[in-house]
Amino acid sequence: MQPRNMSMSGVVDLAAVKAAGEARQKAEEARAQRAASADQGDEAPGGADRLVIDVDEAGFESEILQRSAEVPVVIDFWAEWCEPCKQLGPVLEKLAHEYAGRFVLAKVDVDQNQALFQQFGVQGIPAVFAVIAGQALPLFQGAAPEQQIRQVLDQLVEAARQQFGIEGAPVAPGAEQEAPQAAPEPPADPALAAAHSALDAGDLGGAVQAYKNVLSGDPGNVEARLGLAQAELLGRVQGLDAGQVRTDAADRPDDVAAQLRAADLDLVGGHVEDAFGRLVDTVRRTVGDDREKVRLRLLELFEVIGGEDPRVVAARGALARVLF
């Protein structure tokens, strides 16, 4: 579903939101192309939209790095001759289907992909790693009991959600084995339409409340989350003196409130990388409640631009390096 452009063009420059819409449009076009390829029987090996995929060195960037900006990717390093691998593999595949899209399992045959094996510094197999927002972390090595694996996966999924705002899209049981089909356009939601109307009319307070009403009944509504992030952003920058905000931010680099205001202005002015870089640097310099406040604001700005945008992917990686 495409995001709505923020209105009130007389108040702010909407270049950043336009860029977000273009990025999401490209992502939707890519999904449509994959669906068309699947219908014609020429889907890429491993199934780009499946929960369990076989990955080689050529597909590492698209299947693991890029996808890790949208969903945690668990990598199973294995080999045909490895008996513990044969014990662990089916357990991981079972859990991938059971978790239904909260993570994706990527299987890497180390005999065929020595470069990946060495890149991750794997000491022995089976070895299981995770990639979140482009950042790799080891999970465990050896054929662990299923209950312990569940605990590790639960911690991984929660860390991805809490630290980076990354949540995999739910998949109905068995759906990943079916050829993708174009979904019919859902009926218009009156509550969501009212929220959009308030935003378009410049009633920011009304729009914020309306989007929150939608989310109270449907917490996973992506369009409502985007609309809320846009309305709150516009509300924060309304009436600000841009010159004074930037002077305050330059004079007081450790003032969290000043940096948050400057980042908001950067974003609505189209300076997306500047906004993200400012907040990542502020996270680096802060601790405790201040750090958490800045991290959450950064996740809100990610919502405005869109998770598929390469600038968001890069910023998530930078945030991960600061936090870990």
Please, could you describe this protein's structure?
The structure is a single chain. It is globular, with a radius of gyration of 21 Å. A five-stranded mixed beta sheet has the order 1-3-2-4-5. A hairpin with a 2-residue loop joins strand 4 and strand 5. The two termini are 33 Å apart. Helix 7 packs antiparallel against helix 8, helix 10 runs antiparallel to helix 11 and helix 11 runs parallel beside helix 13. The protein is 56% helix and 9% strand. The chain is an alpha/beta fold. The protein folds into two domains: 117 residues, 3-Layer(aba) Sandwich (Glutaredoxin), CATH 3.40.30; 134 residues, Serine Threonine Protein Phosphatase 5, Tetratricopeptide repeat. This is Tetratricopeptide repeat protein.
User: Beta-sheet strand percentage?
Assistant: 5-15%
Note the run of SSEs as H and E.
Answer: HEHEHEHEEHHHHHHHHH
Within the largest sheet, what's the order of strands?
1-3-2-4-5
CATH fold type of the largest domain: Serine Threonine Protein Phosphatase 5, Tetratricopeptide repeat
**Helix share of residues?**
55-70%
SS field, number of helical segments: 13
This entry's quaternary arrangement is: single chain
Radius of gyration: 21 Å
Low-confidence stretches: 1-31, 41-49, 175-183
Structural class: alpha/beta
CATH class of the largest domain: Mainly Alpha
Largest β-sheet summary: 5 strands, mixed
Total domains, how many? 2
Distance separating the two termini: 33 Å
List keywords for this structure.
Serine Threonine Protein Phosphatase 5, Tetratricopeptide repeat; 324 residues; five-stranded mixed β-sheet; alpha/beta; 5 strands; Glutaredoxin; 13 helices
